[in-house]
Write a structure and sequence with these properties.
The radius of gyration is 20 Å and the shape is globular. By secondary structure, it is of the alpha+beta class. The chain has a seven-stranded antiparallel beta sheet with strand order 13-12-9-10-11-14-15. The protein has a four-stranded parallel beta sheet with strand order 3-2-1-4, with helices on both faces. It has a four-stranded antiparallel beta sheet with strand order 5-8-6-7, with helices on both faces. The protein folds into three domains: about 80 residues, Rossmann fold (3-Layer(aba) Sandwich), CATH 3.40.50.20; about 60 residues, ATP-grasp fold, A domain (Dna Ligase, domain 1), CATH 3.30.1490; about 160 residues, 2-Layer Sandwich (D-amino Acid Aminotransferase, Chain A, domain 1), CATH 3.30.470. Helix 1 packs across helix 10 and helix 2 crosses helix 3. It starts with 10 loop residues before the first strand and ends with a helix. Bound molecules: adenosine monophosphate (AMP). Adenosine monophosphate binds next to strand 13.
Length: about 350
Amino acid sequence: MNLKPILPGSTIGVLGSGQLGRMFAMAARRMGYLVHTFSSETDTPTGQISDREFTASYDDRERVQEFARGVDVVTFEFENVPSSTVEAVAEVVSVRPSGHVLHTTQHRVREKTFLASHGFPVTPFRHVKSIEDFRESLRELGVPAILKTAGFGYDGKGQSMIERIEDAEKAFAAMGQQEAILETFVDFEREVSVIAARGLDGAVANYGVIENTHHRHILDFSLAPAHVSPSVLREATEIAESILVELDVTGVLCVEFFLKSDGKLFVNELAPRPHNSGHLTIDACVTSQFEQQLRAVCGLPLGSTEQFTPSAMANLLGDLWQAGERRKMGHLTARAATTAEALELVRAARESLTSGLRIN
Ligand code: AMP
């Protein structure tokens, strides 16, 4: 493998063009890199601050390769880029993390199968391809269980909770009878995540444990450091770093966990990229998760993950604005002497923003 660092002045390609790509592009430009972005849309959050925005279908192999020829390395900002697009890019220039990481993490069954086969703790699950599979799986796992589409799901979309066997057939039909995963419901106390990174040289680093609360399936607040025992901290960060190694990731990975009241951890989901729960690293840590992604994909040494103070992040959704859609528009981060104080500050800041908007 070519371990020569890609230095400032070089051009980074980003597949995808949302707000994660925008924050990545800001980190890259701040470090002196140029950024090209590729997606099927135009005038995008990432494109607006990139040096070049390519707008074409992900299936347009010619345009994809033209984009690839103009950059020194390619990364991605969301995991639903088709595998064929990544393969077309990889014929021209390095993609980091590589296509196999994307392939595993963009499909829930592949992801959970990878985790279980490497000994990482996951809730019991079954691959559901037909109504017969589904009936059989439900008999084996029992209720309550959660049925999720195998691919292209996020923020709780394409999911349904099955509390009674009688509701099962309806839930499967409502999903359009597509390929799915059935999981045993985890009676968790809290949801936490670990953002970790692995450099091109194999060095790993993590930002500790972050505690997350959701509202209507969308991340609402993140607090760091999470109030967890030293053994949970050790286990969660060790799991995250081992996943980076076993999955052979070059870049940032977020591992989302369920934490039960007895301290037991289950991996729920992986995101092979900077993650919403890590946005507080921008203001609270020496190196943000976006700069860390850049450092990893460029083969630079990873930056320090040291956190200056406890902090809390609140998401801003589009429905803050009049007639706005319920989608992520931005976030606020507060720093304070304790996470409880930071949470109070960030909650008040968000509320003042909403009441201000209502008055206007
Ligand atoms: P996901 O899209 O897999 O991250 O799921 C969205 C949310 O649904 C999670 O943040 C949990 O709150 C809940 N959830 C998903 N899977 C399970 C499970 N197996 N047990 C309990 N809650 C779950």
